[in-house]
Design goal:
Order of helices and strands: EHEHEEHHEHHHHE
Strand order of the largest sheet: 2-1-3-4
Bound molecules: glutathione
Number of helices: 8
Oligomer: single chain
CATH topology of the largest domain: Glutathione S-transferase Yfyf (Class Pi), Chain A, domain 2
Radius of gyration: 17 Å
Strand content: 5-15%
Shape: globular
Helix content: 40-55%
Length: about 220
């Protein structure tokens, strides 16, 4: 096995999706903490590794990958002892992929970053429409989970890792009402029971929540 280095920060949801995958696969790696708040992601040294200046990035024996979805699928293909987290069967794989794309485009980019980017730029006023967009994600996820225990079917996959990391981060802005979204609440509980969950997602999630408190929370504009 080559040397794996993960560039990440706990508060970052896509970083946590990669951590969940590395822990699930029991793959050894070096963790390089990158402080986004002090601009460590914008230094020439880091931009040479990841020109996007984002985390996560992963180096496997010098080969660099710079997107969490590409990283987690690669890790399972390369280091999985079986294909359960990212099935080789074409239709099963396509179903996992569709949730990875859903996370990347709708949940992370359109919904989460829309709120989080201004907050990082010290504008903590959030329009009601942006909060409503979170509830639309919950509605959709609740309906996906009506049929199956996991987002892409009856087994745990990397799509669950990608989504749980961002969805639990969204809870900071729109608390989950377990009465209204029972299937999501059960899914979160199922993932929380994974032996590596607390370390891989719980700790970084707390760091994100602490950051929101540190900046004095946010106001929702009606
Ligand atoms: N699509 C990318 C998103 C990566 C991303 O936007 N990461 C954020 C942290 S959650 C970041 O590094 N932001 C710093 C910046 O954009 O300057 C992935 O899934 O890896």
């Amino acid at each position: 096995m080559g040397k794996i280095v993960l560039y990440a920060i706990g508060g970052s949801a896509p970083s946590r999706a990669v951590l969940l995958t590395l822990k699930a696969l029991n793959v050894p790696f070096e963790y390089k903490f990158l402080n986004l708040l002090t601009g460590e992601n914008r230094t020439p040294a880091y931009l040479a590794i990841n020109p996007h200046g984002t985390v996560p990035a992963l180096s496997d024996d010098g080969e660099i990958l710079t997107d969490s979805h590409a990283i987690i699928t690669y890790l399972v293909d390369k280091y999985g002892t079986d294909d359960s987290l990212y099935p080789k069967d074409l239709i099963k794989r396509a179903k996992v992929n569709q949730f990875l794309f859903y996370e990347a485009t709708v949940v992370f980019d359109r919904t989460f970053l829309n709120i989080s980017r201004p907050i990082f730029n010290k504008n903590n006023v959030i329009t009601h429409a942006k909060i409503e967009a979170i509830y639309q994600v919950y509605e959709r996820l609740e309906s996906f989970l009506k049929e199956h225990a996991y987002v892409a079917g009856d087994q745990l996959t990397v799509a669950d890792f990608s989504l749980i990391a961002t969805i639990t981060t969204l809870f900071n802005f729109a608390q989950l009402d377990g009465g209204k979204y029972p299937k999501i609440a059960e899914w979160v509980k199922r993932l929380e029971e994974l032996p590596y969950y607390a370390e891989a997602n719980g700790e970084g999630l707390k760091q994100y929540s602490d950051f929101i408190k540190l900046i004095g929370g946010f106001k929702v504009l009606r």
